[in-house]
Amino acid sequence: MSTTLGTTSAVAINDVSVRFRSKRAETTAIEQVSLDVAPGEFVSIVGPSGCGKSTLLKLVSGLLRPSSGSVTLLGEQVRGPRHDIGFVFQRAALLEWRSARRNILLQAEMRGMSSAEAGRRADELIEMTGLTGFENALPHELSGGMQQRVALCRALLHQPRVLLMDEPFGALDALTREQMNVELHRVWRETGTTVLLVTHSIAESVYLANRVIVLTQRPALVKEVIDVELPGERDYSATMARPEFAAATARIRDLLGAVTGHD
Asked: Does the keyword Glycoprotein feature in the UniProt annotation (predicted)?
């Protein structure tokens, strides 16, 4: 199934299949998936565990090559690891001996960015994400939510036009996860970055996104694309109470029930 937004896509996945071969068998993880993501769009990806959600992000980042089909990022076909993206994982993966600010600046060191430019950008992100006052704290002195904010700042330091997020808040408690949802939505609106988010949380997928892509069980196919009809600015509690939110989450639950075999 294809979702086409035009020829100026930030990300275009075109009829992609991924097959893994072992000595005993061949496994198809993704089968003929097509998806276009517009510049500045926030797209969530949900589906059963192990269906290939993270595999899609690896394809976009160039960490994995498709068995067939093609992936285009910012107008160029992806043929290997891309360094012009940001990637946030479930674990913050901070260096324990470096402060929050120095963990953020690790991105600049790896990319050879100007130290003055990187410092200004780090300070902007620290303020944007509510880390002011914790710049010199070591990772063990930060809460899980604060550690993920540092990881988000690190991923955004070089101002990537595309940000990939693989279940970034899955290890957080429910309240902290809600707070991070609010922070991420605000940061996305302020930066205009294109975001692809993999999540197991239906509520999170709808609250954050313009569209939600629902995948089937492996081999992954696009089951349905849900357009999220919510205001651009989203107060968390008010958004949860809106009928559009309830309708979207109910539809996704129905689809996931259908693909997983549960009611």
From this structure: no
